[in-house]
């Protein structure tokens, strides 16, 4: 498929009275080429207060602007122009990580397995109960919210690591490899006291209260094998 989704739009975030960013309302993207069924799903989800963007084709979804908010996709597996599984693959190649809930009136075990292995969070066979869809969407939104929080935490951790001086980064990397202060001092040509100072400063800037915290951060950042 030639068209790929645009990167998520990132307008200025709303902030609360304390200046903290306020998360935007979750969005559910519906893709189904049956007008009446698409409308029914849209009305159902909006009736419980969800924001919905509905599309009649995969092309419309893939060329839409993506909000900077928790979201999920409710996708018909048998569209007129495209297979929902193909759309799933296109989204994955484009780096779109939104949870997908598949719908089909002709589901079979191989198709379900393929969709689940590719990351689908649920697979609903038409006709399904309203509550089944609501439960699936709630789970999917929860998954995406957790993913976004994880990415945010990682970005903050990377930012703190970049705030370290080059020497502090070296010391943290060598600590992560299991070297003792005296070993680091010998390898870098520094005094052990100086290494302790750099290590203490690195822990302070990284917000690590203990050595275990610092080692965990190094694992998350994957700097254990970084070159010194």
From TrEMBL:
It comes from the Bacteria. It comes from Paraburkholderia solisilvae. SUPFAM superfamilies: CheY-like. Residues 27-141 form the Response regulatory domain. One of its GO terms (molecular function) is DNA binding. The modification 4-aspartylphosphate is found at residue 76. The keyword Protein biosynthesis does not apply. Residues 157-222 form the HTH luxR-type domain. Keywords: DNA-binding, Phosphoprotein, Transcription, Transcription regulation, Two-component regulatory system. This is Response regulator protein TmoT. It holds the Pfam family GerE. The keyword DNA-binding applies. PROSITE patterns: HTH_LUXR_2, RESPONSE_REGULATORY. SMART domains: HTH_LUXR (SM00421), REC (SM00448). Residues 1-25 are annotated as: Disordered. GO terms for biological process: phosphorelay signal transduction system; regulation of DNA-templated transcription.
């Amino acid at each position: 498929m030639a068209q790929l989704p645009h990167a998520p739009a990132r307008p200025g975030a709303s902030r609360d009275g304390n200046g903290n960013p306020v998360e935007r309302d979750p969005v559910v993207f519906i893709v189904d080429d049956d007008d009446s069924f698409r409308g029914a799903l849209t009305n159902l989800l909006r009736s419980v207060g969800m924001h919905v963007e509905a599309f009649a084709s995969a092309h419309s979804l893939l060329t839409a602007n993506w909000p900077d908010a928790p979201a999920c996709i409710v996708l018909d597996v048998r569209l007129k122009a495209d297979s929902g599984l193909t759309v799933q693959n296109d989204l994955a190649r484009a780096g779109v990580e939104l949870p997908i809930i598949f719908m089909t009136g002709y589901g079979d075990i191989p198709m379900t397995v393929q969709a689940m292995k590719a990351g689908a969070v649920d697979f609903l066979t038409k006709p399904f109960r309203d509550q089944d869809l609501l439960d699936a969407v709630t789970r999917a939104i929860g998954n995406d919210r957790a993913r976004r929080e994880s990415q945010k935490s990682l970005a903050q951790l990377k930012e703190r690591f970049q705030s370290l001086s080059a020497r502090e980064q070296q010391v943290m990397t060598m600590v992560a490899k299991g070297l003792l202060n005296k070993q680091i001092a010998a390898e870098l040509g520094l005094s052990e006291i100086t290494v302790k100072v750099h290590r203490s400063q690195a822990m302070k800037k990284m917000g690590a209260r203990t050595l275990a915290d610092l080692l965990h951060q190094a694992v998350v950042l994957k700097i254990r094998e970084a070159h010194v």
